[in-house]
Amino acid sequence: MTTAFVLGGGGVLGAAEVGMLRAMFEIGIGPDLVLGTSVGALNGAMVARDPTPAVIERLTELWQDTSTARAISDRPFRTVRRAVSSGGTHLYSAAFIQQRLVEEFGTATFEDLPVTFQVCAASIERAAEHWFTSGPLVPAIMASAAVPGLLPPAKVGDEHYLDGGIVNSIPLGRAIALGADRVFVLQVGRIDRPLKPPQRPWEVARVSFEIARRHRFARELAEVPDDVEVHVLPARGTSARDDSLLAHRDFSRVRTRIEASYEASRDYLTALG
């Protein structure tokens, strides 16, 4: 049996995936294949590098580290005014996030990892889904997590990339295409919340993105072959509050999300027997 961990995108909500991972490792479920998109690329890289229960402590430390939160500016409105007035395309610099990734992974490559790992990003020039499967980890993660409007496009080689969530936020189909016959989907809870029509200009992009994200995942879930076992783990500790304009900067509930998702996933997995 080939077991895949599919880690979806979701920014700060990605802390929920740490709780899910803890629940799986506690009962001896480990991956043969790890696929990650956006923040799932970061969490996934950590797991693929150390596919043991020990990774949970490191992930928890990373998510609760105040310097991680500093990757997003603490002066958003001033930055917005500056970006708009200068004709810029993004609100935040990618420099600090890149620095944190280099500190964590150094020059590690996909080939160095003990578990097969792949990262999804959206190629601008080709208007296509792109999968990083070899070479340095850090540029691939940066490309996958380049949230449109918040961070600049990431240049890797001769191409520019934006957040992988644009093209494949929860890459279930990719895992099955690669031969997985047991898939654990680690998602951040957004697919569980009903969407409402946008009421403000900045909500239009979010709602549009959510429709695209959920539509593809729902389609792939409906098309899962009968001989493939898929488990969508429950995310907890998220709410409609996380859809607000500045929610991407709120790290105050990281511990709550980790613990709540751990408990829900533990109960789910226990029920499976």
Entry keywords:
273 residues; alpha/beta; 11 helices; 15% strand
Provide a short characterization of the protein structure.
With 273 residues, this protein is an alpha/beta fold. The chain has helices at 15-26, 39-49, 54-64, 66-69, 76-86, 95-105, 137-144, 165-168, 172-177, 201-222, 254-272, and strands at residues 3-7, 33-37, 116-123, 128-132, 154-156, 159-163, 182-186, 229-233. The model is unreliable at 72-87 (pLDDT under 50).
Q: Which percent band covers the strand fraction?
A: 15-25%
Poorly predicted runs: 72-87
C-alpha termini separation = 17 Å
Largest sheet: 8 strands, mixed
Mean pLDDT, rounded to whole units?
87
Helix content: 40-55%
Order of helices and strands: EHEHHHHHEEHEEHHEHEH
Number of helices: 11
Number of strands: 8
What structural class is derived from the secondary structure elements? alpha/beta
Gyration radius from CA atoms, angstroms: 18 Å
**What overall form do the CA principal axes indicate?**
globular
